[in-house]
């Protein structure tokens, strides 16, 4: 989507999302822009009738002007309220599109973000806003064009030469804006990228705050942050300067036009060709025409900014979806969201997960796993073990589609799983990594992640969190701080376990828990889980008591299966 016809297409898709709201907004803004025509015409009538014998006529006309002004401002308030609702919708549609593409796109999740998560925030925030601004400026431009056209027709009928002079700045501003376009587009892209690297760095710093502190890297972080900000300041200033030049050009040429036209019509007044009312009308209509370059300049700037933003947003969409970016979506802005639809669980309950010839090569190191065969049957506990770096985590993550595989097949009850990242997800499968990522909300929220809470108590008990809860002020509603900062390492891991168990997965995939759980707690966790027996389990462990419980032990060495022991 890197061609620059993509902005009108993206904007049009946003209009199509709720055409009635857009049409309503549009008609109100067009009326608002046209309302000064009425006031200007009434002014002409007042001025032309000042010498009329009956003093009631100008007074009535003045009352009419007042009424027109009140109507104009009422229209403004109503248009602004309506616009705000529409604006939030325009912002929401690209965000929903990008988010659902990221959530449901093909391939490993990590590969779906073009940069860091912090950098993606800038795309969601700034780029969606830039696209919405195009829709916004369309409202004003169509109002301004309609008002200027009527004003020109009326002025032409009075003084064609002066009316022609009012058009001149429009042509100048359009020509300059078109000439500067490509440069402005480059400046905008540089500015967006610089902003993205700052937000990305902030995200990384917050994410790794512990590493920063324990390595006393605060001043290095400061220096890097200052350098990123300094280069952002340079490109940001350049970008702002470019936009302001175009805007000021609009204002400047507009002012010149007003001056020239008034000079022209003033001489006609002296010669008696025009009435004082005509001058009044020109004085109020010329700014309407002269304001047009301002809007057209803004239209150009916003379109070029949005060209960059549409490209950047399209990078968040998986490849097959790029051209369908910004499809109409249902937004739920006035009421809460509808209940989540259950994830499809085609292929039925797990009877047999089979992995054959799984080979993964990590980019960079070239290491990974080769030709791994593995089976997990219903109710089994299959344990992967082996020395450090032998490929245990890689195997788990490749089965779940979290890293891309070079070759190999995965079947669920004999049905080939093409993209495990899309189908080996809850409630089918749950994954408990070595260090689960928690959110800063309450314990219950970070476990449930939107799941109904009727399973919460069971999950808390199975994950051996029930005793810990007794010491928490608000029980499961206790807020656990950023990424669970107020929890111990073991509590974080058991919270991750509860999150995996609350969805009653068919297959539970667990990485090595021994880093944070003591032997006794881990043994108890497994005892409770085996008793509950709702899942088949594939896990990495070295612990003898886990190996004892295993139905099958698969030992890896240097990325290959070295041994398989069946334990019945
Ligand atoms: N993201 C990555 N990029 C490059 N190489 C990687 C990546 N992840 C793992 N590796 C390499 O792949 C090999 C297997 O790593 P993996 O983490 O799967 O081993 P492991 O058996 O789980 O190790 P541990 O017991 O330390 O957790 C290692 O040599 C490792 O250095």
From TrEMBL:
<dbReference type="InterPro" id="IPR003593">
    <property type="entry name" value="AAA+_ATPase"/>
</dbReference>
<dbReference type="InterPro" id="IPR027417">
    <property type="entry name" value="P-loop_NTPase"/>
</dbReference>
<dbReference type="InterPro" id="IPR011527">
    <property type="entry name" value="ABC1_TM_dom"/>
</dbReference>
<feature type="transmembrane region" description="Helical">
    <location>
        <begin position="162"/>
        <end position="184"/>
    </location>
</feature>
<dbReference type="GO" id="GO:0005886">
    <property type="term" value="C:plasma membrane"/>
</dbReference>
<dbReference type="GO" id="GO:0140359">
    <property type="term" value="F:ABC-type transporter activity"/>
</dbReference>
<keyword id="KW-0812">Transmembrane</keyword>
<dbReference type="InterPro" id="IPR036640">
    <property type="entry name" value="ABC1_TM_sf"/>
</dbReference>
<feature type="transmembrane region" description="Helical">
    <location>
        <begin position="20"/>
        <end position="43"/>
    </location>
</feature>
<keyword id="KW-0067">ATP-binding</keyword>
<feature type="domain" description="ABC transporter">
    <location>
        <begin position="353"/>
        <end position="567"/>
    </location>
</feature>
<dbReference type="Pfam" id="PF00664">
    <property type="entry name" value="ABC_membrane"/>
</dbReference>
<keyword id="KW-1133">Transmembrane helix</keyword>
<dbReference type="Pfam" id="PF00005">
    <property type="entry name" value="ABC_tran"/>
</dbReference>
<dbReference type="GO" id="GO:0005524">
    <property type="term" value="F:ATP binding"/>
</dbReference>
<feature type="transmembrane region" description="Helical">
    <location>
        <begin position="133"/>
        <end position="156"/>
    </location>
</feature>
<keyword id="KW-0547">Nucleotide-binding</keyword>
<feature type="domain" description="ABC transmembrane type-1">
    <location>
        <begin position="116"/>
        <end position="291"/>
    </location>
</feature>
<dbReference type="GO" id="GO:0016887">
    <property type="term" value="F:ATP hydrolysis activity"/>
</dbReference>
<dbReference type="InterPro" id="IPR039421">
    <property type="entry name" value="Type_1_exporter"/>
</dbReference>
<keyword id="KW-0472">Membrane</keyword>
<protein>
    <submittedName>
        <fullName>ATP-binding cassette domain-containing protein</fullName>
    </submittedName>
</protein>
<dbReference type="InterPro" id="IPR003439">
    <property type="entry name" value="ABC_transporter-like_ATP-bd"/>
</dbReference>
């Amino acid at each position: 989507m890197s061609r620059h016809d993509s902005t009108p297409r993206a904007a049009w898709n946003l209009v199509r999302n709720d055409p009635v709201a857009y049409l309503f907004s549009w008609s109100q803004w067009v009326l608002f822009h046209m309302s000064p025509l009425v006031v200007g015409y009434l002014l002409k009538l007042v001025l032309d009738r000042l010498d009329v014998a009956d003093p009631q006529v100008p007074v009535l006309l003045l009352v009419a002007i007042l009424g027109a002004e009140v109507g104009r401002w009422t229209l403004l308030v109503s248009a602004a309220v309506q616009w705000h609702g529409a604006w939030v919708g325009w912002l929401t549609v690209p965000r929903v599109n990008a988010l659902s593409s990221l959530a449901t796109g093909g391939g490993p999740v990590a590969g779906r973000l073009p940069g860091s998560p912090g950098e993606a925030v800038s795309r969601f925030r700034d780029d969606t806003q830039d696209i919405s601004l195009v829709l916004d400026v369309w409202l004003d431009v169509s109002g301004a064009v309609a008002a200027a056209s009527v004003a020109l027709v009326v002025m032409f009928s009075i003084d064609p030469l002066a009316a022609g002079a009012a058009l001149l700045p429009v042509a100048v501003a359009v020509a300059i804006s078109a000439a500067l376009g490509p440069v402005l587009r480059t400046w905008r892209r540089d500015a967006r990228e610089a902003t993205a690297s700052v937000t990305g760095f902030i995200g990384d710093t917050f994410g790794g705050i512990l590493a920063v502190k324990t390595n006393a890297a605060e001043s290095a972080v400061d220096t890097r942050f200052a350098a990123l900000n300094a280069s952002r300041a340079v490109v940001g200033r350049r970008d702002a300067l470019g936009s302001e030049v175009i805007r000021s050009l609009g204002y400047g040429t507009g002012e010149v036009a007003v001056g020239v036209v008034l000079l022209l019509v003033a001489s006609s007044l002296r010669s008696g060709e025009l009435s004082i009312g005509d001058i009044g009308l020109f004085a109020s209509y010329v700014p309407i025409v002269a304001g047009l370059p301002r809007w057209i300049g803004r239209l150009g700037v916003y379109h070029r900014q949005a060209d960059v933003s549409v490209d950047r947003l399209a990078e968040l969409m998986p490849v097959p979806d790029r051209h369908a970016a910004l499809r109409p979506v249902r937004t739920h802005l006035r009421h809460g969201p509808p209940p989540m639809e259950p994830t499809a669980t085609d292929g039925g309950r797990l009877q047999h997960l089979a992995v054959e010839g799984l080979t993964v090569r990590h980019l960079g190191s070239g290491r990974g796993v080769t030709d791994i065969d593995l089976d997990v049957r219903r109710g089994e506990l299959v344990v992967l073990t082996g020395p450090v770096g032998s490929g245990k985590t890689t195997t788990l993550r490749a089965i779940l589609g979290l890293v891309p595989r070079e070759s190999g097949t995965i079947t669920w009850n004999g049905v080939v799983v093409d993209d495990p990242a899309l189908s080996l997800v809850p409630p089918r499968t749950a994954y408990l990594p070595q260090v689960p990522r928690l959110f800063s909300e309450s314990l219950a929220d970070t476990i449930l992640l939107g799941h109904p809470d009727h399973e919460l108590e069971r999950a808390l008990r199975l994950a051996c969190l029930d005793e810990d809860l007794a010491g928490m002020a608000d029980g499961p509603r206790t807020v656990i701080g950023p990424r669970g900062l107020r929890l111990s390492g073991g509590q974080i891991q058991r919270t991750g376990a509860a999150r995996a168990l609350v969805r009653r997965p068919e297959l539970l995939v667990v990485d090595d828990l021994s880093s944070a759980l003591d032997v006794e707690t881990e043994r108890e966790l497994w005892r409770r889980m085996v008793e509950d027996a709702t899942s088949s389990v594939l896990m990495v462990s070295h612990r003898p008591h886990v190996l004892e419980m295993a139905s099958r032990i698969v030992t890896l060495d240097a990325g290959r299966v070295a041994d398989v022991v069946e334990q019945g």
